[in-house]
Amino acid sequence: MTLLLDDTISLFTLIGLQEALNGLKLGSALVRTYFLLLFSVIIWGWTFVATKICLAFMSPIELVGLRFLIGVPLIFAIIRFNHIPFEFTSGELRAVIIGSIIIAVHFLMQAIAMTYTTATNTSWIIATSPLALAILSVLILKEKVGNHQIAGIIAASFGVILLVSKGEFGSLGWLKSIGDWMILASANTWALYTIVTRDVSRSRNPLLVTLCVFLPVTVLCLLYLGVFYNFRHLSSLPAEPVIALLFLGILGTVTQWFWQIGVAKLGAARAGTFLYLEPVATTILAVPLLKEPFTVYAAAGGLMVTAGVWWAQMGSKS
User: Fold this and answer.
1) Does 21 fall in a domain?
2) Which residues, 6+ apart, have CB-to-CB distance to 46 below 8 Å?
3) Structural domain tally of the chain?
4) Positive or negative CA dihedral for 248, 250, 256, 258?
5) Between 239-246 and 2-55, two packed helices, what is the crossing angle to 10 degrees?
6) Is residue 23 in a domain?
7) Within-domain flag for 197
8) How far apart (Å, rounded) are the C-alpha atoms in residues 48 and 53?
9) Which of 2, 184, 193, 230 can pair with 102 through a Cys bridge, CB separation 3.0 to 4.6 Å?
10) The domain containing residue 78 runs over which residues?
11) Is residue 302 in some structural domain?
12) pTM (predicted TM-score)
């Protein structure tokens, strides 16, 4: 009887240990997923700072071309490593071509805009992209918008005005802030790109779609660079822009892969909450490194943008 009791206790102990080990494995896997998502968002936030550094030494089209020259082969290598097949229907290929045109406008517009505005303002204004997506979905896809989304759009709009005007509402000079308004426009081009490539990104691997969308832009930029750019200029660049360019091309690209892993593990909705930290990451680095001002109005505007986006997304989920 005692032996049977001891065996039973041992069995339950083993089961308990196995369950604990399984729990630890699940917990560590979840921690790794959170780390990948957090790492991706921080890197994306810092890419605005890296872009600002590079623009002090090269033109916007040179920056976009060189960044893609580094990043596109890296995406291709990741695709080959994961044995992702290159397959598209004629309808999907049409969406990819249109998406490529939009993404070319998006990146060039954003790079040009950042010659006129700060990395901090850029990151907070770009955070309105989900709201731009909601508005364009109503206009193009005829989707319905709820009260939460309307309230969120209004709150975020006031936040953008605070960021652009710096609290000086009486002076209309802020209406001429070309860089900030171009960044706001680029939030809309990104939303438009998302809508155009939505279906093909669902049916095909998003990394494959990203590669095929980026490839024509890369070729066009390289043709321009081949004619007008002296590549020997790269050898005379200081270390700072070289590091920033490599950061954009390598880490800014690899995090696309990390982000997809996180989305696959947690789902788009839960992973999307990490994006609220992107402008925070930009601000934390841009203020000390680029000596960018961060005023009370910038803080209030950023909080209004974040609150507006959060409120709108909570409404869309409910």
Assistant:
1) no
2) 247, 281, 282, 285
3) 1
4) negative
5) 130
6) no
7) yes
8) 9
9) 193
10) 37-317
11) yes
12) 0.80
What is the chain's Cα-based Rg?
23
- Which residue stretches of the chain have pLDDT < 70? 1-27, 145, 167-176, 267-270, 272-273, 313, 315-318
| Chain centre to alpha carbon of residue 124 | 12
Q: For residues 169 and 220, give the distance between their C-alpha atoms in angstroms, rounded to a whole number.
A: 42
User: Tens of pLDDT along 265-308?
Assistant: 776 666 766 777 888 889 889 999 999 887 888 888 888 888 88
Q: Is 187 exposed, middle or buried (0-12, 13-18, 19+ CB in 10 A)?
A: buried
In the structure encoding, which two tokens stand for residue 53, read together? 């550094």
What are the backbone angles phi and psi of residue 116, rounded to the nearest 5°?
-115, -15
pLDDT in tens, 78-109: 899 989 898 889 889 999 999 999 989 998 99
Residue keyed to tokens 């291709």 = 76
CA atoms within 13 A on the CB side of 154: 7
